[in-house]
Task: structure prediction
Amino acid sequence: MTDVLDEGPFFHGTKADLREGDLLVAGFRSNYRPEIVMNHIYFTALVSGAGLAAELAAGDAEPRVYLVEPTGPWENDPNVTDKKFPGNPTRSYRSAEPIRVLGEVTDWPRLAPAELQAWRDRIAQMNVERAEIIN
Result:
């Protein structure tokens, strides 16, 4: 770990159907820019942030949020820290090492349809502008 980071709990949002003990690893396409293969796995200390990621993830499956733990070192997610926001208000992190699924969280806060559409529109605009993803 570097700097002062959260101790958890940590969450990961996805549309994948996962089980306790599963390992999430880097090397898959970005949910937001499918032409990019990710070098890290991302997670957050905010269940609402994981919920947003689950809602925005690629695919038609049901969005899911999982309680996870990193298996190795992690760092602040540079896609949302310092470069775009001072500090780490989203409490978002990434690791090149796998993260382990501890269980599914079923009571996470869902976005209203209008809020979700606003996020989808924002991501679409970022893709048009080719906003940098730090990988």
The chain has two helices and seven strands. Residues 10-129 form a domain with the ADP-ribosylation fold fold (CATH 3.20.170.40).
